[in-house]
Amino acid sequence: MSEDFRILAEDVVDFCNALESASVKLRLQIEKLLGTEVKAKIPEDRFTCLKWQDEKGVRLGDYQVAFTKHNFPESWSHTFNVLKANNSFIANPFHEENYEFGYWIYPQKYSDRIFRKRLSEAKS
User: Fold this and answer.
1) pTM score of the predicted model
2) Which residue among 38, 95, 114, 120 is least enclosed by CB atoms within 10 Å?
3) What is the full per-residue pLDDT of the chain (124 aa) written as tens digits?
4) Helix (H, G, I), strand (E, B), or coil: what is residue 9?
5) CB under 8 A, 24+ apart: contacts of 40-45
6) At what angle do helices 73-85 and 3-34 cross, to 10 degrees?
7) Residues 24, 40 contacting (CB under 8 angstroms)
8) Domain boundaries, the chain
C-alpha cells in the first residue's frame, strides 16, 4: 500500500469519526429542544473491537481498561469521543439495550484510557 493511500485512508477514517461524534452532539441538542430522549443505536462491537486489559480495584472489583497505546488510534479516539459526547462517566456508564458491558471515561485524570465493567456485575 502506498504512503499516499495510507494517509488518505487515515484522513477518511478521521473524517468519519468526526461525523459520528458530531451526530451524537447534534442528537443531544435535539433532545434538549424536544425535551425527550432520541436514541441512536450504537452496536456494542464499536467498543468490543478494542483491546481490553483486566484490572481489579477495591471499590470497582473486576473491570477492564482499553489504553490508547494498545489500540488503533482511530478506533480508540472514535470510541472515546462517543463516550465523551454521551457524558459517559463512572456514575453514568454508556450502554444500550442488550449490551454486555457499561463503558465510561475519566478524562480529568485518565485521558489515555476507556473503562468497562460487565453490567451484571455492576448491578450487583
Assistant:
1) 0.67
2) 120
3) 688 877 888 888 888 778 877 877 887 788 778 776 655 678 898 899 999 999 999 988 999 999 999 999 888 988 998 898 888 999 999 998 889 999 999 988 988 999 999 998 545 4
4) helix
5) 41/96, 42/82, 42/96, 44/96, 44/98, 44/99, 44/100, 44/101
6) 10
7) yes
8) 3-123
Q: How many residues are there in the chain? A: 124
Other C-beta atoms lying within 10 Å of the C-beta of residue 94: 22
What is the grid cell recorded at 31?
A: 433532545
Helix intervals (H) in 1-124: 3-34, 45-48, 73-85, 119-123
Contact between 65 and 53 (Cβ < 8 Å): yes
C-alpha grid cell, residue 19: 461525523
